[in-house]
Design a protein that fits this description.
By secondary structure, the chain is α/β, with parallel strands linked by helices. The chain has a single domain (6-247), classed as P-loop containing nucleotide triphosphate hydrolases (Rossmann fold). It is built from nine helices and ten strands. It has helices at 52-59, 77-84, 103-113, 119-129, 145-156, 175-192, 203-209, 227-233, 239-247; strands at residues 14-23, 26-36, 41-45, 67-72, 75-76, 88-92, 163-167, 195-199, 212-217, 220-225. The longest helix is centred in the last third of the chain and has 18 residues, at 175-192.
């Protein structure tokens, strides 16, 4: 299916309806509905425990929803997960890479798993893009946290995904590399019409990166829209001020 054909270019990449996840002691996600369009970056915000990670895990098919419907590329995730994940990838600062491999070996493994064509060229390209060529023969366990984050992002782009989930993608990076990474992601998004679900606790970054944002609190969406629209609706000057207001439960 050529999802990004002209005829269907405005259909959502992700459609979520009534998504709910109940664990024994808590309702982590409570009747959440949203969509992401081709070429859009949707920022998912909220305090720790708001339900962000649970939503990402359900969208990846790693966690089974208690209720609700997830469609990706117009397909039901439950029925077509194997097909869908070929065009999806994920990066998180909190996911460890295989420590016994070198940087280059790791990318080669993921390139093979995704059946990437011209694998060596793709691996070399990503090593250059993320400025990790000089550590390509270093064991992953010897990398700094910032280097591991860059490797994780390189892995996430190995299959040229149409949909990317990024959980704290610039955490542990120094300001220079973080800025380069954000510029790179925006460029790839524009060139490839890439859709991204983006989470971060850096509110300046979220304002810079997100076309739209969803604010979660106790598993519910309590605010949505373009960053400046949400800031204005809360009568605040910055997204960080809105975040603090929501986190402190002044407005729920």
């Amino acid at each position: 299916m050529d999802y990004f054909s002209v005829e269907r270019m405005f259909e959502p990449v992700i459609e979520v309806q009534g998504l709910t996840k109940v664990f024994p002691s808590v309702k982590a996600v409570d009747t959440v509905s949203f969509h992401i369009y081709p070429g859009e970056i949707l920022g998912l915000l909220g305090p720790n425990g708001a339900g962000k990670t649970t939503i990402i895990h359900m969208l990846l098919g790693l966690t089974t929803p208690t209720a609700g419907e997830i469609k990706v590329f117009g397909l039901d995730l439950k029925e077509h997960r194997e097909e869908i994940v070929q065009d999806v990838n994920f990066s998180s600062t909190y996911v460890s890479m295989p420590n016994s491999l070198t940087v280059k070996e790791c990318l080669r493994v993921y390139a093979r798993l995704y059946d990437v064509k011209e694998r060596e060229d793709r691996v070399s390209e990503l090593l250059r893009t993320f400025e990790i060529e000089h550590i390509q023969n270093r064991l992953i366990r010897h990398l700094s946290s910032g280097q591991q984050t860059r490797l994780n992002l390189a892995k996430a782009l190995i299959n040229n995904p149409k949909l990317l989930f990024l959980d704290e993608p610039t955490a542990s990076m120094d300001p220079d590399i973080a800025d380069k990474t954000r510029r790179l992601l925006r460029r790839i998004k524009k060139e490839r019409n890439l859709s991204i679900l983006y989470t971060s606790h850096n509110m300046v970054e979220m304002e810079e990166m997100s076309d739209r944002i969803l604010f979660l609190h106790h598993g519910k969406i309590i605010a949505s829209g373009r960053p400046q629209e949400v800031v204005k609706s809360y009568k605040r000057k910055t997204l960080e001020e809105v975040f603090l207001k929501i986190a402190r439960e002044e407005k729920v």
